[in-house]
Amino acid sequence: MSTAAKKESMWNAFPGLLHGLARQHDGSLTRDLVQNPGGFGLGQVPAKQTPDAVTSMVCGFCSTGCGLNIHLREGQAISLTPTVEYPVNVGMACPKGWESLAVLAADDRATQPLLRDERGRRQPVDWPTALATFTQRMRAVQERHGPHSTAFLSTGQIATEEMAYLGSLAKFGMGMLHGDGNTRQCMATSVVAYKQAFGFDAPPYTYDDFEQSDVIVLVGSNLCIAHPILWQRICRNKRQPKIVVIDPRKTETAMSATHHLPLKPKSDLTLFYGLAHLLIRESWTKPEYIAAHTNGFDEFREHVAAFTPQRVAAATGIDAETLLATARLIHEGERVSFWWTMGVNQSYEGVRAAQGLINLALMTGNIGRPGTGANSITGQCNAMGSRLFSNTTNLLGGRDFTNPEHRQRVAEVLSIDPGKIPDQPSWAYDQIIEGILKGKICGLWVVATNPAHSWINQNMVRDVLSRLEFLVVQDMYHSTETAVMADLLLPAAAWGEKEGTLINSERRFGLIKKVARAPGQALSDFSIFRLIAEEWGCGEMFRNWTEPEAVFQSMKELSRGQPCDITGIRDYLELDARGGVQWPCPDHAPEAEQQRRLFADGRFFHNDGKARFVFDPPAEMPEPPNARYPLLLLTGRGTAAQWHTQTRTAKSPVLRKLYPGGVYLEINPADARKYGVRPNQMVMVESQRGKLSAKAFVTHSVQPGQVFLPMHYEPVNRLTLAHFDPHSRQPSYKNCAVSVRPAEAHGG
Ligand code: SF4
Of 9, 20, 328, 501, which residue is most buried, by most CB within 10 angstroms? Predict the structure, then answer.
């Protein structure tokens, strides 16, 4: 079947999932729910396996954080259904959620530690050998090259308590300075944007805002497939909202919107300045709000004065009339919300672009009220946990490593010597990779992430990883591109096989529980960290952390007095009973409050209580198309059934049927003609860094001069250019120059 046909058949098979759940032809919004997408057999209770108990927990794939009822027989999960009472998903789940249990039963689960022998073969070893090898070889690297020559790369996929344990063990116990998470790839931009604008990394919204807005602006977000349940929340909005999608591609979400602005790639910052210019010119701002609650508006007004409609139209490709109409929509909306995801974040000027949206919300007073906000939507199920408690860029509890008072407070809570806490932050992910290249990092511990697939400019990163003296990978599968490079593989339990908390995009803590046995000798990440602490000789430092809930109690104390205060959550039992709890939840918070929106009182987290307008001139695209590579490559999510590097989703036969098996390239018909490409023909896509073959999907969803590859397929990052936002160091995956030609003509 052709790629296009496969896509079409997928959409037909699940009409509720993509376009069908969006705006109907008559312009009304459907309220169909994805409560029972026929065909997800694994999500239904088998007739002969009547459950004898049901427990609920949150999904472990994406940041939406849906509630799932797990049906148990003799204490083991046999099936699941979405939780109707859970405030996030109210009875819905996407295909990944329905298949959460199925992916646990894969053939390539890591079931025992594997150690590479002197001939380069991976050999099974027992845990004592694995732990002794880990300790001896990491220590040997530190002795040879200094304590900061070992580092860790972690993830947004493990429980918050595990993140806190890993970050504390590595930095306070093992003497590491450098450790970062794969959240650098998706969320670093928003973290920095919020910190600079609001004084703390604080996404201000609650999902209920999707249902309360009357103008919803989605930027660089294909919500229909990336966050399908959140799209459903929009579909439940009774206010008949205007939906404005700002995206170079005519995505599934753009097709379903009331307005689509197909701007030129990476012209978003200019567009936001142009809209600000028009709002000021037309006196469509909220001067009282600006004066009472913000700083820097006068300078911002001067800055955007130069962004005339003519200039902005030339830079963005959006004509002056549409610009004014969009500004008018924002002005006329009583409740306007601005939402963004990776189209903004994964950019060489992502922080300023995110702040461009924050500026629009501030100047129009669209913050702190129902249906408003400058709202970043996260990717991974626990990216938000990583942002606050992973002890990587931030000290535990959203604190600052360079602040002596913060170090003292953390030392008191953990009863450790303050001198054990580094007084400087870690290198970012790309700096750790560069540190390996320069011989400064020689031992690396990778936990639940797959940089050999997902990091930008893949050929370079594989070469870099191969230079390490000691590479440890801790993962639930032994077959990831990074795991097969490891000197030592530590087999980890997965979601469903351990307990802890995850924090979703709207700041809601949710519980995960152990409802299945981990295979073979696999252990929870939490247990692995405990064993390593003992083997390393620093177990005493973490003596109180006997179980995840003990770490949770420490996290509560670490959060006390911080914007993310959770001292009002008594324990796991209460968290479970309350259907998740959003931070902040200080110990005096009313128990019944299920939705917590920030900044209702107009007070932000800077010392003066005011938000800041932050801005800079737009930057030049580092690698625009040129004579040899005349097309601009965009990357992004492919379908609702795929998750990141497909490490898990590829293990589900059901999910695999919902997306094309091989790489496909979306190309405009004009470019297809120009480069002699026929529909479904294999083509060679090439950048300065590498090449891949893909099946051509000729479509108007991409504009002439642009092509699109779904990010999930292994070869895609052979092409991408390693360049980064200067403030957040987040990689800019969505722009590099490529050429396309028919593969056969060149023997490709
Ligand atoms: Fe899980 Fe996200 Fe799907 Fe909800 S939308 S079921 S959290 S993958």
Answer: 501
